[in-house]
Amino acid sequence: MTVASQHPLAAELVAVLVAATDAEPLVLTTHDGRMLPSGPFESGHRSLQAGLRAWVEEQTHHPLGYVEQLYTFADRDRTEQNTEQRVISISYLALTRQGPVSGADAAWHGWYRYFPWEDRRAPSAELGELIDGALRAWCRAGADAAQRRARLQRAEVCFGLDGRAWNEELVLQRYELLFEAGLVHEAIRRAGRTGLPHLGEPMRHDHRRILATGIARLRAKIKYRPVVFELMPPSFTLLQLQQAVEALAGRSLHKQNFRRFIEQQQLVEETGALSTETPGRPAKLFRFRGDVMLERALSGSKLPLVRGN
């Protein structure tokens, strides 16, 4: 008898379903915001993606649009249940527009509810000081000088301490650092360590880690591929487009530089209509160019993140 036969393997399909509404990045959740839509891969599913779509639509009644495989998680202790069965999670990133949902306590939640330190558009000084102090205390608690230096270097790189630049793509590394330091609820739940469970809302199993991976992937993609198209309505103002990119990246952008970049890349065209929803002077409405929509599947369009002043 083999070890594999003694410990059966099961596959779970997990969806990180993202939308952006009113300058707020959203993620579709179930079970009162504690889980991502998910379910086991079953023999009746034609493919992994077909199984994922079936579970998402059954649990939330929301259709899936753009989907790409994200990552496979196979850590032995990734679930809360104490079971002999090994469960791996095959996760997917899906982009859509916010729509009505129902079933399984499904709801849209802002993703900064789970990662408040990731929103750098108007960062909380109190939260920053709290994390800074807690991480430095964890660094000082290292077993020896070498470990203390290594911990401090990781904290500086991940959280931009001591003059280091903030890298918005290090979402997973920041969460895992806080986990290792015992500063998030999931670490306390798993190891019984004392920490600060109010650093973001927790999720069941390792779903917050999966969500962090999805956010990092999307933040990287918006710099070189126009996937933000999937999140925008058919027509929009340039301000709405900028706010959507800022929301996803968690960074403020320089208004004129951003508009200059959009014009140079020829990503959008005017619709000929004006928006009456904006205060003051009506703003021009734009749409993404049809030829760009076709070309994106082949080579994409470079969309780097424009830094604010």
UniProtKB/TrEMBL annotation:
It comes from Pigmentiphaga daeguensis. Residues 228-288 form the NrtR DNA-binding winged helix domain. It comes from the Bacteria. Gene3D superfamilies: Nucleoside Triphosphate Pyrophosphohydrolase, Winged helix-like DNA-binding domain superfamily/Winged helix DNA-binding domain. This is NrtR DNA-binding winged helix domain-containing protein.
